[in-house]
Amino acid sequence: MLLAATDLSKRFGGVAAVRRLDFHLDPGEILAIIGPNGAGKTTVLNLLSGVFPADEGRIVLDGTDITRLPAEDRCHLGLGRAFQVVQPFPEMTVRDNLMVGALFGARQRSLAEARKRTEEVLALTGLSGRAAMPARDLTLAGEKRVEMARAIATSPRVLLLDEVMAGLLPQEADEMLAVVRAVRETGVAVLFIEHVMRVVRDLADRVVVMDFGEKIAEGSYRDVTGHPKVIEAYLGTEETGGA
Ligand SMILES: Nc1ncnc2c1ncn2[C@@H]1O[C@H](COP(=O)(O)OP(=O)(O)OP(=O)(O)O)[C@@H](O)[C@H]1O
Ligand SMILES: [Mg+2]
After folding, report:
1. Residue 241 lies in a domain
2. d(CA 95, CA 203)
3. What is the pLDDT along the chain (243 residues), one digit of tens a residue?
4. 90: domain CATH number?
5. Long-range contacts of 110-117 (CB under 8 A, 24+ apart)
6. Which of 49, 87, 173, 222 has its CA 20 to 30 A from that of 154?
7. Residue of minimum CA distance from atom 28 in ligand 1
8. Residue 43 lies in a domain
9. Under 8 Å between Cβ of 82 and 166
10. Does any domain span residue 172?
11. Residue 146, C-beta contacts closer than 8 angstroms, at least 6 positions apart
């Protein structure tokens, strides 16, 4: 087990955003977390990456308890994250955006090593042709790719992706999918949140489904999409439905 969350909980005032959640990620695995809007998916990534602390529970990365560690320490230990709301540095070039990840990521690097890593990741993510472009001139698809590439440049052991395919055209999503697969081939485990079900089906080895902060199902894409609780979570939000 590479990453394990046990009994993880987080409240915001009266809202139980994550409730007693247990899940794990194996080495080299691609795990999807899905669920309706507000289910608590992004909160899980925030707890894992250290944006804020968990109220209860434990997070262990490769044998190290990281539950109370600050975000930068988690990054150094190998958690790399791309955000749902993309946050590239707009005035910097695509190359320099990746350089930030390469310099401040999981490994201590010299400037020369970081430059080498940056060129590797530009190639891996298909961004070499846009390397000199300021990030502000990118399309949404380009921004999403840079957001992901910057996280990859940190050389994570676990890559955390929050809806990196959202708003992309099918072909753009396919290209991102190929990049995620290529990253996995380099031995990185991936935990991704996604609403685009085709992407979940094609990419995930295993799926965790959340609703109202809780895990309601776990298994293969086929298993979870046929699960009555999951169907109800996605369809049964109208309580006045009266069949
Ligand atoms: N920083 C915060 N402060 C207060 N409430 C929050 C905060 N972050 C999340 N919440 C609340 O916690 C619940 C879970 O939110 P979260 O963003 O984790 O859902 P999500 O599954 O990522 O949804 P979406 O699919 O829309 O991105 C929601 O009720 C949300 O309003
Ligand atoms: Mg979210």
Report:
1. no
2. 27
3. 999 999 999 999 999 999 999 999 999 999 999 999 999 999 999 999 999 999 999 999 999 999 999 998 999 999 998 877 767 788 999 999 999 999 988 777 899 999 999 999 999 999 999 999 999 999 999 999 999 999 999 999 999 999 999 899 999 999 999 999 999 999 999 999 999 999 999 999 999 999 999 999 999 999 999 999 999 998 875 554 334
4. 3.40.50.300
5. 117/153, 117/155
6. 173
7. 38
8. yes
9. no
10. yes
11. 86, 88, 94, 97, 98, 127, 135, 138
Residue nearest to atom 24 of ligand 1 (CA): 37
The number of angstroms, rounded, from the C-alpha of 154 to the middle of its chain's C-alpha atoms is: 14
Q: Which of 10, 12, 194 to mutate to test the pocket of ligand 1 (most atoms within 8 A of CB)?
A: 12
Neighbours of ion ligand 2 (CB under 5 A): 41-42
Residue 11 Cβ < 6 Å to ligand 1: no
Nearest to 80 by CA among 164, 148, 4: 148
Number of domains in the chain: 1
Residue 155 placed within a domain: yes
Domain of 223, in residue numbers: 3-235
